[in-house]
Each structure stands twice: as structure tokens, then as C-alpha cells.
Specification:
Elements: H1 2-30, E1 35-41, H2 53-62, H3 74-82, E2 87-94, E3 99-106, E4 109-115, E5 118-123, E6 128-130, E7 140-143, H4 151-162, H5 165-170, E8 171-178, E9 181-186, E10 192-196, H6 201-214, E11 224-228, E12 236-239, H7 246-251
Parallel strand pairs: 1-3, 4-7, 7-8, 10-11
Antiparallel strand pairs: 2-3, 4-5, 5-6, 8-9, 9-10, 11-12
Length: 252
């Protein structure tokens, strides 16, 4: 008899607990969403602003017109936000207060590629994503018929330029003119620096830097049209056609 009463108490407790849970969940689901909190996560010191809080909030509200907690489809929202071109990863969750949290990590471009009529960014994972009408990130511009297989070496080149004080100030662009032949565009634009292929980058960049410090900085910057680093153990200069030193012009 005691066992029957014990079982009856257990079943009664389960039923009461179930009813309480049902009414609590029903009440919670009917509750209005208190707030949408968007947090942009950054994995490094470089900030990007392809997305802003308002655009994310407007998107969430458009997918939940009722504004009720119970109508929020969290897996769907997370999937859709992860499909935004500039989003690297997104995490969506709801707390017991009815506040929706959205953590977003955006893609950080390494360079911007201009290829024919197409313009897009390439991130650190060598993944392409489109440019934005709302925001332009300040990165190196790469032009030409660049192959996907070359992205990783270009990322390496861009990082080396960015992390060197001289190179960062001196180079403003990279151009692929033909297969395995890249040029660096300089700030003053008087001449191009021919890299050749994308191998031995440290050797080529440091070689040009030394050549600049020991020789070029004492020359008229208009003297040359091209400085070539493509050949092993030598730097080849191309004299500007018709160039005359200032002293020769004065003598005439």
C-alpha cells in the first residue's frame, strides 16, 4: 500500500511539474522579444565595418514580424546570417529574459582584386567575397588576371609589405601583367618595380630596399621607368627614354 502511495505521489509530482513547465513555456513563447543585442567579434586588432548593428537588427525583425519569442527560428537566423558574404561566422542564442544575442565575426580582407570588370576582396583564408556599397576597407589593390592558386602567395606578399615600415609607405599596388610576372606600384609613380614570380619574396623586397637606401635615393626619381628584381643576384634598371640629368640640360 505504501508503495502505491509513493508511486501516486511521484506521478502527481511529474504531472504538476509538466503542467507548470507547459504554462511557463507558453507564457515565455507569447512574450515579446525584449531586445536584439549584436556583438561584433574581432580576432585581431584590425576592425572592419561591412555590417552594422542596424542592418542585422532590421534583418532579424523582418524574419519575425510578430516580435514574439516563440516565433524566433534561431537555427534559421544563424544559418542566414552565416550566409552574408562578409560574415566569417555567426552565433545566435536567446536568454531567459527574452533577449536575442547575435555574435558576428566579419571577414577581414587581405587585398582587393580588380580582374577585368570584377572587383572583390580576398580574405586571409584565400576566400573571395564581394565589395560593399556601404563600406570600403583600406587594403592593397591587386590588378590583373590572377588565379586562385596564387592567392596564398599574394597574401604572403601583402603581409610582408604591411609589416615593413619602408614597404608599407612605398608600395600602393600590385599588378600582374603576364604569367608569373608581377609589378609593385610605387607611391610616387615614377617607375615600376618588377618582382617577376612570387617566390623569394623576402630576398627581393629586402634587395630593393637596400638598393634604394644605397643608390636610388641619391638619384633623380624620374631617371628610370623600371627596376627589375626578377633575376637572381642582380637588379636591372631601365633608363627612361630621352632622360637627361639636370646639369646636362643647364649646359645646353
Amino acid at each position: 500500500m505504501k508503495n502505491k502511495w509513493r508511486l501516486l505521489k511521484i506521478f502527481s509530482t511529474i504531472i504538476i511539474f509538466g503542467l507548470l513547465m507547459y504554462f511557463s513555456l507558453t507564457r515565455f513563447n507569447e512574450k515579446k522579444m525584449e531586445d536584439i543585442l549584436v556583438h561584433f567579434v574581432s580576432s585581431d586588432d584590425e576592425k572592419v565595418y561591412f555590417l552594422d548593428e542596424k542592418r542585422v537588427i532590421d534583418f532579424v525583425k523582418s524574419k519575425n514580424p510578430s516580435g514574439k519569442v516563440g516565433d524566433i527560428d534561431i537555427p534559421y537566423l544563424e544559418k542566414e546570417i552565416n550566409h552574408f558574404p562578409s560574415v566569417d561566422s555567426a552565433n545566435v542564442y536567446l536568454n531567459l529574459n527574452g533577449k536575442l544575442h547575435i555574435d558576428i565575426q566579419q571577414r577581414v580582407p587581405k587585398f582587393r582584386l580588380s580582374k577585368g570588370d570584377m572587383n572583390y576582396y580576398v580574405d586571409g583564408d584565400a576566400q573571395e567575397f564581394p565589395t560593399s556599397p556601404h563600406y570600403a576597407h583600406d587594403v592593397m589593390l591587386v590588378s590583373g588576371n590572377v588565379k586562385r592558386t596564387e592567392y596564398q602567395k599574394l597574401i604572403e606578399l601583402v603581409d610582408k609589405i604591411k609589416n615593413d615600415t619602408f614597404s608599407k609607405k612605398y608600395y600602393i599596388g600590385i599588378v600582374k601583367e603576364k604569367e608569373n610576372n608581377y609589378y609593385l606600384i610605387t607611391q610616387d609613380g615614377h617607375f615600376k618595380v618588377e618582382l617577376g614570380d612570387l617566390h623569394q619574396l623576402d630576398y627581393k623586397l629586402s634587395g630593393f630596399k637596400k638598393f634604394m637606401e644605397k643608390y636610388l635615393m641619391y638619384q633623380d626619381p624620374r631617371k628610370y621607368t623600371k627596376i627589375s628584381l626578377r633575376f637572381d643576384n642582380q637588379i636591372v634598371t631601365t633608363l627612361r627614354k630621352g632622360y637627361q640629368p639636370e646639369e646636362n640640360k643647364k649646359a645646353e
